[in-house]
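User: Show me a protein chain along with its predicted structure.
Assistant: Here is one chain, sequence first, then structure tokens.
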Amino acid sequence: MKHMHSHFLLLTFLITLPTLISGQALQQVVPESVGISSGRLAHLDRTFQDYVDNGQLPGAVVLVARNGQVPYFKAFGQRDMETGESMPKDAIFRIASQTKAIVSVGVMMLQEEGRLLIGDPVGKYLPEYMETTVAVAKEEGGYEVVKAERPITIRDLLTHTAGIGYGYGPAKEAWEAAGIQGWYFADREEPVRETIRRMAGLPFDAQPGERFVYGYNTDILGVLIEVVSGQPLDAFLTTRIFEPLGMEDTHFYLPEEKVSRLATVYSKEADNLERAPTPGHMRGQGHYVEGPRTSFSGGAGLLSTAMDYARFLQMMFNGGTYNGQRILSRKSVDLMTVDHMRDIPYGRDGQGFGLGFTVATDLGARGTLGSVGDYGWGGAYHSHYWVDPVEELVVVYFTQVIPARGLDDHAKLRALVYQALE
């Protein structure tokens, strides 16, 4: 009997072993153990150290994972150039639009619970969005306001095809008068639900489903999550995504004990880097430490570390699980990471857009290294990431430069990661 019990335990272990391996936390390994050349990674080291030495970047963190292991995780330069403090690998960065992928996952989680369908009109949950308007520019100047031809759907918001920009379209004066322009919400004392409610009364930039218009779509989705879940967005993301994934350093507003790890923002207008103003606005240090701590921007509000964001992306790569925690079903991940543009103009050669991510559709048309089906995005402070399911790669690149004129670091990072594969 004891012998049979031992065989049963061994069989159980062997059956669960693949799941245990795929679910393990990201661990640092020797590059060669995952098919990456240490010698060729030296090109990446040298190039990014040159960016720092030449005054092109203040500092940066680069993390590369392959099949759930971490062969490359390095920090370059300074967290703060004025104090000379080195950039730590656990530095905290303003990730801006990298918030969008996380909130998009939150929406898909609610669909999986039967709380909504992404084909639903947004107005089913946010009534002010059932009937909206569009500003149509006139040849002679100005614009006319027309009714939207159909209700905006949740999927329209996920794909940025709802016609909603950042307040700089044909009716920009009306958006300016309403105090709703640009992606930055951290200085607002108004709860995001009320900002989004007021937004619904403004004329949008295009008809739903007409074209890709990058804008407040994911901020509206953040409010949708609040209404459907009954939780503030920060609480929902913390309990449903951050805590299960071990994302301990991801916040909308920084706890006091973590302020010393926050990377400083710099601006590169020409050849030199200049420290961005405090608090400033979209091009400043921001109100992430001192400020109202009221508005939770689902489109651009989060702070995070390279390792935290890698955990989130590894969950996507794993088909919705990480470290034994299932966040999404495999089929939801599949749907999020394919092109949804169909006949809608997107404007990027060889790429389409899914539910929160840009997706490679044709490598020759795109003209950069990667794989058909790789997906990613970035943030306003010049951060960047992608996932390559074919090559089993997750790449996270964090820096804090806005604007970042003349930098080619994103393209070089892609070239230098792929050239190191064996």
